[in-house]
Amino acid sequence: MSPLQQDYFYLVDYVKFKALRLTTIPQNDIDTLGIEAKSVASSFGYVLDWLKVCKESLGIKQDRIDDEERSVAELAYANYLQNNAGIDDWFNLHVIMIACTYGWSKLALQLYNDKSTQKGTAFFDTWIIPSINLESGTATLSKSADKLSVFLDKNSGMWAAGIDLGKWNSLFRTSLRLEVALFDSAFSPYGKRL
To answer: pLDDT digits over 106-117, tens only?
Structure first.
């Protein structure tokens, strides 16, 4: 079971999650609807980019991608995202993404700044570099991680009214556990091709 292909499956599911999340935008917020609809469309580019990386940079054949099965961890995560998209609100569906959007960018930034990280490897070029922002000449968190942080900081007060803050904690912790399970599944002996 290839972790690279599981990432591909996750990206497909992430785009579906973002599309479903559109239904939770507050009714009169047309500006946000327009911005987020464009974001869904651009997120599909991540799917195509990662598929290209798998095939061209990493040499994975299309038939192997087609034959790959989703790991139990990836299926569980996809199910969690889809289910929450139908029952949670606009803000909560952003809290769910902290572990993925912010967490992996933070890890990539630490690896980028670690002197022992080997630069020029496929991992460095296809995962670390795309997960950070180098536009200022200094490595920082990705634009999507920054955008998520700004959104959460700006809106937490408004959305917290009447909410049990334990809900946000639970959403974050569950998402983090699913991220770790997806990562761990790459090292699982179950389902690996012989």
So the answer is: 999 999 999 999
Helix (H, G, I), strand (E, B) or coil at 145: helix
| Closest to 192 (Cα-Cα) out of 8, 50, 3 | 3
| Span 60-80, average pLDDT | 91
Q: How far is CA 81 from CA 99, 139, 154, 167, in A?
A: 13, 30, 23, 15
Task: Name the strand (E) or helix (H) holding 30.
Answer: helix 30-52
Using one digit for the tens of pLDDT, what is the confidence trace for 148-167?
999 999 888 777 776 777 88
Give Cα separations from 3 to 60, 65, 108, 187 (angstroms).
12, 11, 17, 8
The pairs formed by 106-113 with CB atoms below 8 angstroms and a separation of 24 or more are: 106/141, 106/145, 107/131, 108/132, 108/142, 109/139, 109/140, 109/141, 112/139, 113/139
Residue (of 69, 13, 7) closest to 44 by Cα position? 13
Is the full-model pTM beyond 0.85? no
Question: Can you tell me the distance from the alpha carbon of 174 to that of 7, in angstroms, rounded to the nearest whole number?
Answer: 18
- What is the tens place of the pLDDT at every residue in 30-56? 999 999 999 999 999 989 998 998 898
